[in-house]
Sequence to fold (481 residues):
Amino acid sequence: MILQVTALFSLALPLAHAAETILGVYIFSRHGDRTPKALPPANLTDLGYQEIYTSGLNFRNRYVSSSASAKIVGINADIVKQSQITVQAPADTVLMNSAMGFLQGLYPPVGSSVATETLRNGSQVQAPMNGYQLIPIQAVSGGAGTGSEDSAWLQGASNCAKAQTSSNQYFSTQEYKDRISSTNEFYKTLSPLVSGTFNQKDINYANAYSVFDVLNVASIHNVTVEPSHLFTPDVLFQARTLSDIHEYNLAFNATDPIRAIAGATLAAEIVQQLNTTITSRGKNKINIQFGAYASFQSFFGLAQLPAANPDFYGIPDYAASMTFELFTTGTASPFPATADIMVRFLFNNGTAANSSELVAYPLFGQSKFTLPWSSFADGMSKFAIGSQQAWCHACGNTTGVCAASASARAGSASNSPSPSASSSSSHAGMSPAVGGVIGAMVTLVVMLVMEALALLIGGLRLVKKKRSGKIEDSIVTEGKS
Fold:
């Protein structure tokens, strides 16, 4: 019998406590409802716009507004302060439009009375659209979770050779072959429903996600689906379950972590952005990024979230988001030392949830819902990949942007000391936690400000981003503020 993965979000925990002060957050969000990938170009629907706007409004009510339930200390409540917020989205219609819709909810128009300026000659100018707030979105052609929403292949935008090879290996496993065979009859019953979109030979488990995607869109938008007696809730659920299994196996494999390159690069970006909040002493408060479901699933696997709830094997729904809160239980003024900063992971499964409530889950297979900053950074460093050289080495790429890194590795190998000499001098005098963070994360995720961002590794491909400054410092760990 096919494993049926239930909808995410089976529990709700109380989150903020009176003694806590939120210092900053990182939010990674999926887009809203869209048209199917099988009929490109995919576009954000009116429903998707409404979903993502509502998501932004929910985050406003939690972190930003004057009456927010867990207001970020020092955040501007009504008129956005650009230095407090950083937003990124891929150069993709669905994801970019989702980011804009989200921001409209996070910082809505301020009204004509506020958005009016008096000029020197005494005339008044009112901002358009009732004081619509303009918030810059950094458009990236790469980064965690990027790649066109028109692509149905999970590794379709990947230039990571080993990740592509690893995902393709799933198709050679006995598990995959058994699944193809055991679901053959099920997909035959779907043929009348999707034959207008797919060739008969393509309606099978090999295309589980594409088939489900078409059915899912139809279930939301089509008034009638013929033949209607075949299109039941159980059929849709089974199609989704098979899609969950198929995509998770392409996104993550515990014995071959390179398959989760999207999650590894996302982990580096998460630590990098939260570190920016710390090193700026709270001046940077909100970091938001939009991306694809593959990055969610890859990160879920790497962070061992299925151990906390097996629902994390599934594909997150439209407008789903995961949030990382930086908080302290001590005073927030002056800005606390890193030893007094904690991290909490929260998830909301978008439209699958009947509540806007964020739910806390433990990371890294642990039982604790909060971690000290140094422990969090150390845990992420075990799988994060955040530099071009590290990405090239992990992916086994030696051409294009990786040519220089390959040459450097070759030169380093010929001049490297013996293993015993290297190991004896590594991290001398450092505690294991701090040494682990510095040794693993400094070369991966260290960048203080977004303006100084030189390289951003793609969710499934490598890209360069221009920079205006230099990399200044390393990940802040215990003993530094």
Remarks:
- The chain is about 35% helix and 10% strand.
- The longest strand covers residues 21-29.
- The CA atoms of residues 398 and 407 lie 8 Å apart.
- The longest helix spans residues 46-64.
